[in-house]
Amino acid sequence: MRYSEKALKEVLKKHDVPNATIATWKHRGRIPDKYLKNSIEEVSDEQTRKLTKAISDKRINRTSLGIDSMKSRDAARGKSRFLVNEYEEHILALKKLTQDLIKLSKTETGIRSMIEDNRIKRFLLFGRLISNRSYRPFYNLSDEELKTSASSMNDLANWIEKALS
Length: 165
Fold this sequence. Notes:
By secondary structure, the chain is mostly helical. The chain contains 8 helices and no strands.
């Protein structure tokens, strides 16, 4: 945003900004957007609890979803909170994962593609199916194994939805 005294007053109400930084902003003619957006605000304890519960499942690969595992552990202990924009990104990623789990669990090719998806920890979700990967390729899955896989995918999707609600 362009530098103005009005915008500077808003920033100073919310943040403790050193005089040297104010001088730099004035010289550059702009104030960084992160100081003026509402995304600096932290989410409530209830929202933090919902998110940490949803990502606490060990079958979810938090790093592939862009979730900092250290920050999520700190948030679970109450030592940290997520910012609003982080929270919205994580919720969106979890909802997308849930939709994909439900949609892909209906077809054989969908299950096979989900086995290769890095957003889940495939060894925990599909366990025995891929434990001997070199001996049992994915294209040799029996009907029973496909049903079991679809069931575990739906269980994870239901877990995420329940945690977020």
